[in-house]
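Complex 310.
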Amino acid sequence: MVSGEGKIRGDLIRKEAFNLGFDLIGIVPLRQLDEHKEHLHSWLDKKMNADMFFLSRDKDKRTDPRKLFPGANSVIVTGLNYFPPILQDGDLPLISKYAYGEDYHFVIKEKLRKLLDFIISLDPSATGKICVDSSPVLEKAWAHEAGLGWIGKNSLLINRERGSFIFLGEIFLNIDLESYTQVQPDYCGNCSLCIETCPTGAINDNRTIDAGKCISWLTIERKSEIPDEFRGKLKNRIFGCDICQDICPWNNGITPHKTDQFRISDDVRKMSLEEWKNLTSEKFEKLFRRSPLKRAGYKKITDNIKFVTD
Ligand code: SF4
Ligand code: SF4
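Predicted structure with iron/sulfur cluster bound:
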């Protein structure tokens, strides 16, 4: 084992994480996140989770990760930039930037698996559980704790140098690790641009989102038709929404990502409005086979196109 005081050195893990392409990493001891309990429960009690009932099912596991990962002692939190080097034409049906390329779950899980293998090579007694936005984990709270940034008024994790177009991932480990964290203060200050700019008024004043009003939920998760009250408010958004990130001053001049899998293909970027309107299920399958758009499915996407273009 390569360690300091019997623990694997944090700088070795950081170095390997950067080699694997991660932009941010922090390491913290596991603990109960009791201070988030009230906030989470009140958000759920007010039904701000829309129909995402799975969020209330596992609420105790979210604040007590040992219920989810018995024996876990440390958490590694990683951040991977997804701000695109090339953007879609803003007048065409818009896909959220996180969905330009391949589904991030696969890309990040593969990197985290390699990071875990590296840790096991240093300490064969190590075991870990990888999470990417799917387990009941308070990802942003852990990212804040691990020094990756602060939770902005738009409810997203913001890093002072990297902005907020960041995918988070975690490894919950059974071993103790040398902690490596520098908690970032809240740099939102008096700004409220995201709250003022959100076209549907979905941002609450306590750094949470009313999911039922958020364009991301409406265009991705909502099973039934988008209600008429939102007509005109989505502009040309057919999958997700970046408005509260695009407006955030901390995203001004950020460096684009270097992850090839997150690039938008020319075939998608060059689609005309007519091609979007006439999208067939065969073409959808071909273009978005490995994309997050598959999660919404052909019918939802074509309904959304109709909703914003009719
Ligand atoms: S993603 Fe869009 S709709 Fe949702 S809170 Fe942000 S600006 Fe509002
Ligand atoms: S737009 Fe302003 S208030 Fe909103 S997250 Fe960014 S800095 Fe914070």
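The pocket of iron/sulfur cluster (ligand 1) is lined by residues 154, 198, 200, 202-203, 209, 214-216, 241, 243-244 (CB under 6 Å).
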